[in-house]
Amino acid sequence: MNIKRAKDYLLHLNNLRKAYGNTLLYSALKSKIKLQIIETLPDKRTLVLSPHPDDDVIGCGGALSLLTKQNTEVKTVYLTQGSSGSENRLSLSEKKTLGKTREDEARKASGEMGVLDVEFWRYKDGDLSSGQAIGKLMKELLAKYNPEVIFCPTFQDPHPDHAETIKILYGSMKSMPHFNGEIWMYEVWSPLYANRLLKIDQYIETKKQALASHKSQLSSRSYLDAVLGLASYRAGMHSAGKHAEAFFVCNRDLFVSLYEMIERPKK
To answer: Do 48 and 90 fall within a single domain?
Structure first.
């Protein structure tokens, strides 16, 4: 860690202490600094929030394959239809066709990972926005499914749909003070500060097959190389086998507090 990064990190921690006190600071430090390398996951009812039809595979495909292998109950919700996932300008009819294609690809990819319970909300990608309607839908989903673990994008992800997914989840968590499950944030468009590294050597082939199901996306970008490269890097830097997935894991209180700190308007 260079001097500038060290100073920025200390400033970040001091601001956290001033804003939320020593108790939250200790919780954040304990959660962030103690990196754990793991090979198993708890057998707990799991909900996956995937902004687009392939984010689940990219961010946590190995974890999902492990969970279904051990017969854990898993449900994936795709928030947007993915109809804008093309390098070319598409007509409305072409977008409709692509949206259907991507939904079919997501079903196939989920099947490869063993996830059979999937749900499509079909919001317009690139224009996902938190609001009363989708906020109500999220609260209803959480109340009905009652997850013990939630996978979602990280605070650090710069994609607007991913940021809105986090904001939508935050709105629900804010109104659910008694939620006692865990939130596992995964990385897609930006690396995260990890406190869990999951070895996925046994599931890397399944993850590759699932990602290969998204043919409409692989034709325009080298997702497979990028995803495998990231998994190799994560594992190699921490002697965690040959492939690993990185997560930031926290409880509801820390999730809400960190979100509010990050999103607080700068004076």
So the answer is: yes
pLDDT of residue 132: 85
Query: What does the alpha-carbon distance between residue 128 and residue 160 come to, in Å, rounded to a whole number?
Result: 8
- Which pTM was predicted? 0.85
CA-atom Rg of the chain in angstroms: 18
Supply the DSSP string of the chain, one letter for each residue: --HHHHHHHHHHHHHHHHHHHHHHHHHHHHHHH--EEES------EEEEESSTTHHHHHHHHHHHHHHHTT--EEEEEEE--TT--SS---HHHHHHHHHHHHHHHHHHHHHHT--EEEEEEEPTT-----HHHHHHHHHHHHHH--SEEEEE-TT---HHHHHHHHHHHHHHHT-TT--SEEEEE-SSS----SEEEE-GGGHHHHHHHHHT-HHHHTTS-HHHHHHHHHHHHHHTTT--S-EEEEEEEEHHHHHHHHHHHHSPP-
Please provide the average confidence, as pLDDT, over all residues in the chain: 86
To which residue do tokens 């990196």 refer?
35
Total domain count, the chain: 2
**64-74 average pLDDT score:** 98
114 and 25 in a common domain: no
- Taking the C-alpha atoms of residue 196 and residue 185, their distance in angstroms, rounded to an integer, is 10
Domain boundaries, position 154? 38-263
| Each residue's pLDDT tens digit, 195-239 | 999 999 999 999 999 999 999 878 777 888 999 999 999 999 999
25 and 138 within one domain: no
Mean pLDDT of 58-85: 92
Residues 207 and 111 occupy one common structural domain: yes
- The confidence score (pLDDT) of residue 144 equals 96
**Are 207 and 243 in the same domain?**
yes
Model pLDDT, residue 217: 79
